[in-house]
Amino acid sequence: MDENFSAIAYLIASIFFIMALRGLSSPETARNGNVFGITGMVIAIATTLASPGVVSYDWIIVGLVIGGAIGDVIARRIQMTALPQLVAAFHSLVGLAAVFVASAAFYQPAAYGIGDFLNIPTPSMIEMSIGTAIGALTFTGSIIAFAKLQGIMSGAPIVFSGQHLLNAALGVIMVALVVMICAEQSEQLYWTIVGLALLLGILMIIPIGGADMPVVISMLNSYSGWAACGIGFTLSNPALIIVGALVGSSGAILSYVMCKGMNRSFMSVILGGFGGEISTTSSVTGDRNVRAGSADDAAFIMKNASNVIIVPGYGMAVAQAQHALREMADLLKKEGINVRYAIHPVAGRMPGHMNVLLAEANVPYDEVLELDEINRDFPSTDVAFVIGANDVTNPAAKTDPQSAIYGMPILDVERAATVLFIKRSLGSGYAGVDNELFFRENTMMLFSDAKQMCEDIVKALE
């Protein structure tokens, strides 16, 4: 394929990717966004396969078959509750791929048209070194995030004295090594960069835990994009450069928006360890009593309400209760009750987690509102129906400076006339913080599996 034609094809593919991002910004246009993304990827792959640099298709076909088979199995078997760790796992593969590609280019630069072994032009060496470093720290950082989300290791922050100083020192050393390898290329320097980046990825993520994990996923998404972008320069592939920059910048913007919404420092997120500087637990349970109710109680209260706001959280995802919840909401709407859904930016384990689940249950998009759109309505709401959203409704975020979630904007469900809270127990949420909301006079606890409770309420409403 002619180089000019390839450049035009890559440009067209990139336009489709931009249209995909625009489409994915809203639930109403998300399906079109996916179509645009698939179209762009097909154009980019076809253009690459038709380029003169591809001299054999054997290994490419093997890779397509293996990768396609794995992707097919994952798409069929993965549970919606496992999406966050799946995303983290995919990020790790992007990072590892960047390291492999950079290593291949380092040892066989002639195959990529960037000089000879240990005699690579400085600009290419800079691109390769940075891409390798970002890819390596993305790999190990994503592995740690996956392990925390999957429960393989504790989700609590792991901190030690001098941690931030050590991270900063490793970062400075890596920059120095990049400069050194450009001046004096050697295998030892290259693998030292890889090793330090792998270590830095671990050290950056282990101090982060609890309610901050959605930001970590977004941040790693950004890192994987920049890693791909760096390798795109090494391969002189415009599509990879543009797509990597799109993913990297969009992930960074999302991380910034989420940090702002959680009252966190964006630079602290970038440097890692922002969750470990404050207490992760508080004790409010003691011997205090709570008001417990049944499905019949909840049905009676909601049937006599005028406005109900449903607040979904990870508990709904774990129980796969979204369909039963939709059925309950439909019955309430038939009674003339105004039912809406309130989504916190970090509800669940990754950005948009709740939106995906509600869309799966065909909940109308116009009934789903973000925190800043609906928070002011809670004082005039009869019932706030919380289904497993512990941390994002915890008043400690506003009242307890020692809390791990202090400063994070929450959904003000406690200002509703009645709060119905589905939970299996009085245990703390993912952030490890007890919720004093359970003991408020206007709160009724519904102790049960979320799906079972919603189904029981449906029966009581019928």
Key attributes of the depicted protein:
single chain, 462 residues, alpha/beta, 6-stranded parallel β-sheet, 17 helices, 6 strands, globular
Question: How does the SSE layout of this entry go?
Answer:
Elements: H1 3-24, H2 30-49, H3 58-77, H4 83-107, H5 122-150, H6 163-183, H7 187-205, H8 213-235, H9 238-261, H10 266-271, H11 295-303, E1 307-312, H12 314-319, H13 322-334, E2 338-343, H14 353-360, E3 368-370, H15 371-374, E4 383-387, H16 396-399, E5 418-423, E6 443-447, H17 450-461
Characterize the structure shown.
With 462 residues, the protein is an alpha/beta fold. Helix content is 57%, strand content 7%. The chain has 17 helices and 6 strands. It has helices at residues 3-24, 30-49, 58-77, 83-107, 122-150, 163-183, 187-205, 213-235, 238-261, 266-271, 295-303, 314-319, 322-334, 353-360, 371-374, 396-399, 450-461; strands spanning 307-312, 338-343, 368-370, 383-387, 418-423, 443-447. Strands 3-2-1-4-5-6 form a 6-stranded parallel beta sheet. The longest helix is centred in the N-terminal third of the chain and has 29 residues, at 122-150. The radius of gyration is 25 Å and the shape is globular. It starts with a helix and ends with a helix. Mean pLDDT is 86; it is low at 274-282.
